[in-house]
Amino acid sequence: MNRFYPMMVDLTSHRCLVVGGGKVAERKIARLLVSDADVIVVSPVVTQTVKKWAEIGKIVWYPRFYEEKDGENCSIVIAATNQREVNHQIYKDAKKRKQWINVVDQPSLCNFTVPSTIHRGQLTLSISTGGASPSLAKTIRQELEQIYGEEYALFLELAKEMREEIQARVLDPAKRSQILKSLVSRQWIEACRSHPDQVKKWMQKWLDQELQAEH
Ligand SMILES: C[C@@]1(CC(=O)O)c2cc3[nH]c(cc4nc(cc5[nH]c(cc(n2)[C@H]1CCC(=O)O)[C@@](C)(CC(=O)O)[C@@H]5CCC(=O)O)C(CC(=O)O)=C4CCC(=O)O)c(CCC(=O)O)c3CC(=O)O
Ligand SMILES: NC(=O)C1=CN([C@@H]2O[C@H](COP(=O)(O)OP(=O)(O)OC[C@H]3O[C@@H](n4cnc5c(N)ncnc54)[C@H](O)[C@@H]3O)[C@@H](O)[C@H]2O)C=CC1
Question: Might you give the EC number(s) for this enzyme (predicted)?
């Protein structure tokens, strides 16, 4: 069994090739766009959504069949056609170039796979089943979406600000660690959900009290 190494990658401005323009390719492209990658799509036919992305300049689309040179200078290649032999050829070309390659119909050829993912601002939750059951990954994603709502985005934004202030102002490591831990409480997360407009003021007040107790 292959245990994949979970890794958060900065794809900003990295050229990423997606071959194919169907439903599966569209999903992979959407993920790459969230990460600000430079996406090149090669496919004679694409979905309406992919076509729209090309029209508004979010991606570059070459409306033709795959050619070996398409993968040049790409950090990542995704073979997402419905032709097994074409996907296999894309794999061989990418392997020669030592690129990161995802083949949507042959998990054993992938040197990376795409997990099911939830974004809540800076929070990312990803689920992988190592290719055993993508449907289970999707089901768990849907369950977690109910538990981890949009309030986590606001909470993290505020927690980041407060954390920076705590790091700058609390010099005693033990005390700093204690305040940083108490910042992460159910109450604050709940307040982000119920009172998004007021919570920052309350948190700041709480922090000021904690910092005063310092002196
Ligand atoms: C190995 C991997 C490679 C990769 O694509 O990266 C792979 C491979 C394959 N998927 C197949 C089928 C389906 N995949 C989905 C859905 C998703 N597949 C995703 C990832 C992965 N799929 C990687 C492993 C992920 C892991 O480790 O868990 C997700 C998580 C991420 C994403 O794609 O963005 C996304 C859910 C996103 C979400 O909604 O949260 C559904 C459900 C649906 O579409 O509703 C079905 C139909 C039901 C079923 O088969 O279970 C087939 C058979 C094709 C066939 O039979 O023709 C293969 C090939 C094979 O297994 O041989
Ligand atoms: N990994 C995953 O998450 C999943 C993978 N699959 C697999 O993914 C494959 C694709 O599925 P869909 O997107 O639904 O298929 P689809 O039939 O909607 O799209 C296939 C695309 O490939 C393009 N294409 C075909 N030959 C090409 C070539 N030589 N060069 C460039 N583009 C070419 C077509 O123009 C079309 O846009 C299927 O074979 C299926 O087995 C299916 C479900 C999920």
Answer: 1.3.1.76
